[in-house]
Amino acid sequence: MYEKWNSNPVTIAYDSQMPISTIPLPAVTVCPLIKSRVEVFNLTWAMEMFVQNLTMDTNSKRKLRALAHVCPFVEYWKTFSYSKKETVVPDLRKMSHTLQDVIVYCKWRFSVVPCKDMMVEQLLDDGICYTFNSLSSGEIYRADKISLDFLNMSNTTPSSDWTREEGYPSDTGFNGYPFRPLSNGLYSAFIFMATTRDIDRDPMCMTAYTGYKIAVHSPDEVARMKDSFFRIESLSVVTLTITPTVYKASPILRKYSPEKRNCYFSNERHLKFFRIYNKVNCETECNANYTLALCGCVKFSMPRSPGTKICDASKIACYSQTTIYRPGVEPTNFNHKKILNCNCLPSCNSIKYQVEMSRAPLSSKRYPWKLDFLEDE
């Protein structure tokens, strides 16, 4: 019995009586596969210029280098040399659609609401994406440590009334943030419609897919669009059914070491760039540190200090190989042992969201509401 306790002192007990109104809805992040408006930059035109061995102007070269970070096909036909003048984040923002252009219709608890009040822009691996029910960037990141690229988004969310360990305060009303369900079913659903323009669909960036990538995650986590996402095709209706599983640790476990109980409480592990400890944020920060040590720079979407160098297009191959890194697996020809030892244990208090998806074709001619754009666009 002692040996059993010594090897695994934590017992998991199951309880199905937790009120669903005490659990926040997940954050949902939407990333369009279209990365550029055709009137700002046409990637197919850029490829034709390259094939014909024609010279592009400096402004077009800079935009092409920025798109190379988010359009996977570019690396197959274009090799980039080192450049000091690359401005990835500002160029991606200039080329991308605004939130209001992409998310055009929103309903919350059966009421039509402005989409800008429900979703925010975020800087992620896929470029500029849009997230529902996420904590504000000022609550996720340490504002005095992180680059302003992660803080200067188009709009902000309300201040949070919830934490992983404490949940919602007893005096929080039904409109507390992050949003939470009041019951099962569609009454607690967030419904939105996303659109893309046909003229912006560029196979040189989107490959064979259309539509969007969607990630479901905890409100206090940063979405990992490379690791865990769903593909949503254009002209389809998609319903996500969410089943949450809540893990809560007894306070008595605090007397054991994190290694013994195999988890961290929120105040036991400090992260440089994130205010909130969880496994996802820890691994995201660890991967950024590893990339900086290996490449001498970080990908534009990785958390970084204001003065940290952003990898230009010539370093895409270098930072891409770091995305397969996992703690405990040492890459070859790399000696930064301290950086590799990230020890990103799970949070002692956490929420996992299981997702079931159903799809149906969308008939745009049968919309029950008036659209403010032409159907053939």
Q: What is the overall silhouette?
A: globular
Neighbour order of strands in the largest sheet: 4-5-1-7-8
Radius of gyration: 22 Å
**β content, as a range?**
15-25%
Query: Would you tell me the overall average pLDDT?
Result: 86
Low-confidence stretches: 335-339
In percent, how helical is the residue content? 10-25%
Could you spell the SSE succession in H and E letters? HEHHHHEEEEHEHEEEHHHHE
SS class = alpha+beta
Continuous helix count: 11
Number of strands: 10
Largest sheet: 5 strands, antiparallel
Taking the alpha carbons of the first and last residues, their distance comes to 69 Å
In short:
The protein has 377 residues and is an alpha+beta fold. It is 20% helix and 17% strand. The longest helix is centred in the C-terminal third of the chain and has 17 residues, at 279-295.
Structure description:
The chain has 377 residues and is α+β, with helices and mostly antiparallel strands. It has helices spanning 2-7, 43-51, 58-67, 88-95, 99-102, 137-140, 203-206, 258-261, 279-295, 316-320, 337-340; strands at 27-32, 103-108, 111-112, 119-124, 127-132, 190-194, 212-217, 230-232, 236-247, 350-361. Strands 4-5-1-7-8 form a 5-stranded antiparallel beta sheet. It has a 3-stranded antiparallel beta sheet with strand order 3-2-6. A two-stranded antiparallel sheet has the order 9-10. Strand 4 and strand 5 form a beta hairpin. Helix 3 (58-67) packs across helix 4 (88-95). It is globular, with a radius of gyration of 22 Å.
